[in-house]
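Appendix B, Record 12. Input sequence as logged:
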Amino acid sequence: MYDGFFTKLHDYVAANVNLKTYHTMTEDKREKLKTRMTILACKEFAPKKNYGVSRDEVRQFVSDTLDTLYWGAPRGEVD
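Logged structural output:
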């Protein structure tokens, strides 16, 4: 059903976010970046139309991906 969508999304986020810059951001700016990456990913992949994945699901996956790349796990798992 998802035809590798989440793998593509993970790779897209990893390729388009500079973690050194992410490190210097405030929490508010990180949240804005997550929102921006969600918008860009939705434009790139049309997840609702092509995979039946909602924007909220994409936003959560973007957030979890960035947290995993930066912290080593989603935030709820490292706090």
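DSSP finds six helices and no strands in the chain.
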